[in-house]
């Protein structure tokens, strides 16, 4: 089908790192985008295969898209916009090349999410291109839409941070909840761990079990703290601290975060919901639940939705439950949303599907 | 969103039985159909709720679609085309009402799939409207496209039969395989059992286990035999007999059928694949695997694809492996495909998505 | 095999409510108990079948154990000790009958867990036998071993409460953690919801999804608060308050609780672990993890173990992660442990198995 | 606990390859064996850890069992009986060393299952010790009990072959079914693929999907054919041919095989069941289902049971459904059963547990 389309008017894109799960999700979403042609796709391990040979789910759409070892110059030459779905530190050189050639890049790695290189280095090690940090826009359109529209480099956010940031920021800005003592208990499907062969993520290790991991030591913590500090008007990295515990759920997709905050000045779930309704009145991807109802991950899987809910405790504590799809809104869906904004497409293009239930 | 669309040019449809899994799948697919407005939806148990209240996955699209107890007259009045996603025997009265009022109906129940009322009665019990059987078109477009285009009543096929019928029919027609001794070993996800509360389908009964069920006694057997008999030029019900064993897989969606046939006159997998390529050259939903590769259910889930593969045994036996999504191509996807043909839409409308992997 | 054993020296037991998951788990465990003969088993829905007909996993061991509609008098007559694995409110009449006849009973329902009838009534409704509350012993041997040994009526604890009670009580007693602001974020396998037919617990509703439920409204909350209040030396029901959120994990068994507490006087994970080691030095079923390691539910499934771990946050908060099997230590394993104590068996009898991994 | 036991009277065993799933299963089962002390355990990748550190499920039982790189001489010195749970070709050198030192070995690899070295070499490549083949006893006690009792080298059978061999052999011997045209459609849990890190067996690749693999090309085929040929009185390797298709089920454990055979001289399911009852009258691990009932894998998981069932088709075909646990009866359970016979223990020692359901 793709081959039959008139390609000349389409935006040509490159997917660097097409054999991981975020790469695959990009290909899945872009197959439904009427204004895009995938002109380049890289993979080290599966070079030589077509995308459809590697992923039979892509048969009939990517039968001729050849995977090749990453060559940043070639990617930039082939494409108008580059998606880098590469491991952290490996993305930066390609990002730099794209910018040097005057094109646009959406980086799905962690390389440009943290504004402070020192925080990056404490978390991920040596930063390969700190000089580009000031240009990077943190790619949550619901928080930075105007900046994303004009960006050349969008740092696509991490999967865990989005639910907490989107749920808490308007509440912090409105002074409805305390910025101290925030507990974020998150549960993720296994695709968040990527497509690398490791014993820990084998089916027989994960199925029928549930565990916490990297307790108080997950790399997404500074990203959450940075953005909540922005919301609080505090200097990033020196402001809000959260207690963050990720867990592994025996399911493919989805993140559900249960967040415990203290209401300020008597604020409860009603006020929280009202604040969300005000902040997100026009957002196409934010769905706010009535008090007493809480989301399940299946209802957002495969979609770009962020589902938000809140419940009041008698002692003034508020429990917030939020769900996203870690691969879609948590990664490639956001990336397409950012792409749409950067290229002048309708923001929801290729992101209109409802979740596959059951 | 739906409410903002210009509705006047759209085909109005009714979904009778909207709270089961095939009803939900219809709503999911139709949400992406630019030429459709869902004007009526029925449910006995969830009457009074909106579709989006019952199924949070539908939030933002079906927020105002009220579920009401089934009233065939009201459904027909509200809609141009009616989908009946009701239990067998319960569908027929609504089907009759639709036809009486001169409108079109796509029946997802078993009521009009078997051409011979006697076979129906042996399988399902008393037939509520045998006089309509002769008008019904068996709704596999890849076999009966011309008839579907003109049909007023399409009997949407069962989930299990489609893989066997679509894989075997062209081979039988070409005389490549024997019509005797066919073994069909099928494995289905649990959504095939429907959304009724039963102990057998509880998560804790199914998860971590695999079983056969209704061995040699499944109701879809006569449907398979009917269509293979047609392919063989034999009188339906008196022709081809198959040995059919369904199994339950601890997964939500998908049917994989492993089919054992004897090649005729030295025919092997190569000939089988060539016959498929010839028969299905222009089919948008049939994907044929190269020899040596076999499909997995995940690659068709959420899609209308039928994936076909074949392997040769040294003794002349051929093993065919075929996969579909039981709820989509196996039910509601076919129904939308039939709808498109009956209403003059492009056949693939609303059915273009690739599978959600992982 | 059982029939061949010399039965005369064995303790005869009755399992009232043998067709639910806790009943099945009792039968599974008791099959390995050399000193027990199951002399009576009841089930309303499956009366007339043998236990092995209902549950093929029991074949070869319970082939002649007939299920019959509950008759408390008959149960007491047949058995020396009665297990009541019945819904709350339905257990009390049988419990009363057992006590009247001078025999012993281990009640797995909620009926005698809460010491204060008023708290019970607020949580579960009318209490059917409040006069028996004062005699009931709360059946966590690690907290009440001496009392259990002498008890005639043991109120077997709920599944969720055990991890929090066993992890927090020694810390509260030692003054290591604050009793205010405790957050308990628990995640349970689906068997905890029982074996009743409900749409919510169908495989296709649960698989591939994760959700919170009964947020701040779960019936086990008062049970946790009661026992933590005892640990704190506060009047039950008027003392410690916790924020408790249960979640549903797509797996059969296991509960993992992530507990957030504030350390007192600089206490951290090291102190917590030391306190556990002291409190539980001789406990056969408590396993304490070294700092930095946290349990997964699979490692306790099918066992009576309680796995405990703790991690320190920089701000003085301590994260406790604890895992049990909801059906075994969380229900029937505890019941057998209590039984062993009440009848003079070695406490670990029939409870020695390691987890089935993977 | 183990350390407290009187060790002097126990049989000392070595587990070579303790960090794979069959090694883990051996440790799990042997922990419940009153006559065994595990004196040696090897692992290349996890050398230096204790077994309980590697597998937290073993905590409290194997806390001091150090894993060390395989040293056959050391294993033989430490142990009276050696279990080799190593990859094929890697097991043979240790097996040879054990025999040289006059001790006993149970080999869970494929190295000594095929009596004909030529068949081995076609299937697995160069055979490292063909001279030992004639001494090896194929370790299915239900078929070769007398030989196992006297064996020094037992070749523990593959996981897939056991169900087909145990179900079909008595039928072939009794002339009840045809030896031609046998179709074996098997479905296995993922633990059968081992504990090596591969993308194909990642949770996110397997969960929610079902597939066939190695269609007509699986290495267990010659093993099945060898033993069915023995039953038929035909020269192994030149006799019975079967059509065997393995499939992967998204579950941890269990194999269900659906077997299609042609009854001879009017034989049907009744005759099949009668033949099994006669052949297996005294077998502790064979459970035969009444006609019309078929097993599910969950009912054998964690056990050494082989569940057998049969259903008659009108055309003389018989469908046999059989279930085992691939890691227990399919590997380590059989190994312990063989060990018991070789060392004079009661055959069921340490194998008495019922399945963990749900």
List the helices and strands and how they pair.
The structure is a homotetramer of 358-residue chains.
Chain A: E1 11-16, H1 21-30, E2 36-42, H2 51-54, E3 67-68, H3 72-78, E4 81-84, H4 92-100, E5 104-107, H5 117-124, E6 137-138, H6 141-150, E7 153-155, H7 159-173, E8 182-188, H8 203-206, E9 211-212, H9 221-232, E10 242-248, E11 255-262, H10 269-279, E12 286-288, E13 306-312, E14 317-324, H11 328-343
Parallel strand pairs in A: 1-2, 1-4, 2-3, 4-5, 5-7, 6-7, 8-10, 12-13
Antiparallel strand pairs in A: 8-11, 9-10, 11-14, 13-14
Helix pairs in contact in A: 1-11, 3-4, 6-11, 7-9
Low-confidence stretches of chain A: 1-7
Q: Do you know the CATH topology of the largest domain in chain A?
A: Dihydrodipicolinate Reductase, domain 2
Secondary structure: helix percent of chain A? 25-40%
Determine the number of helices of chain A (DSSP H or I, runs of at least 4 residues).
11
CATH class of the largest domain in chain A: Alpha Beta
The CATH architecture of the largest domain in chain A would be 2-Layer Sandwich
Kindly report the oligomeric state of this protein: homotetramer
β-sheet strand percentage of chain A: 15-25%
Largest sheet of chain A: 7 strands, parallel
* Terminal residue distance of chain A: 28 Å
- Topology order of chain A in helix (H) and strand (E) letters: EHEHEHEHEHEHEHEHEHEEHEEEH
The CATH superfamily label of the largest domain in chain A reads: Dihydrodipicolinate Reductase, domain 2
Structural class of chain A: alpha/beta
* The number of domains of chain A: 2
The count of strands of chain A amounts to: 14
Average of the residue pLDDT scores of chain A: 96
């Amino acid at each position: 089908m793709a081959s039959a389309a008139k390609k000349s008017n389409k935006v040509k894109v490159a997917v660097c790192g097409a054999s991981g799960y975020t790469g695959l999700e990009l290909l899945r979403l872009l197959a439904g985008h009427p204004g895009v042609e995938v002109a380049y796709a890289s993979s080290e391990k599966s070079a030589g295969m077509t995308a459809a040979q590697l992923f039979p789910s892509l048969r009939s759409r990517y039968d001729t898209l050849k995977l090749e070892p990453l060559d940043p110059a070639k990617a930039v030459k082939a494409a108008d916009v580059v998606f880098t779905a590469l491991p952290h530190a490996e993305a930066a050189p390609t990002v730099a090349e794209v910018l040097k050639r005057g094109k646009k890049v959406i980086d799905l790695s962690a390389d440009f999410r943290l504004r402070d290189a020192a925080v990056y280095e404490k978390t991920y090690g040596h930063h390969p291109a700190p000089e580009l940090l000031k240009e990077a826009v943190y790619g949550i359109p619901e928080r930075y839409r105007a900046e994303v529209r004009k960006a050349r480099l969008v740092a696509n956010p991490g999967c865990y941070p989005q639910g907490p940031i989107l749920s808490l920021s308007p509440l912090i800005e409105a002074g409805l909840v305390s910025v101290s003592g925030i507990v974020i208990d998150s549960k993720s499907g296994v695709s968040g761990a990527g497509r690398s062969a490791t014993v820990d993520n084998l089916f027989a290790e994960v199925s029928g079990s549930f565990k916490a991991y990297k307790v108080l030591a997950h790399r997404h913590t500074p990203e959450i703290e940075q953005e909540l500090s922005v919301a609080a008007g505090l200097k990033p990295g020196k402001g809000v601290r959260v207690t963050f515990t990720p867990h592994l759920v025996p399911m493919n997709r989805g993140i559900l975060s249960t967040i415990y905050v203290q209401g300020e000045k008597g604020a409860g779930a009603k006020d929280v919901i009202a604040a969300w309704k005000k902040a997100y009145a026009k957002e196409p991807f934010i769905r706010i639940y009535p008090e007493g109802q809480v989301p399940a991950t299946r209802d957002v899987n495969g979609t770009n939705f962020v589902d938000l809910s809140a419940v009041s405790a008698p002692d003034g504590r508020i429990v917030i439950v939020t769900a996203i799809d870690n691969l879609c809104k948590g990664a490639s869906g956001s990336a397409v949303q950012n792409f749409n904004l950067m290229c002048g497409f309708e923001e929801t293009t290729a992101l209109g599907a409802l979740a596959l239930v059951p």
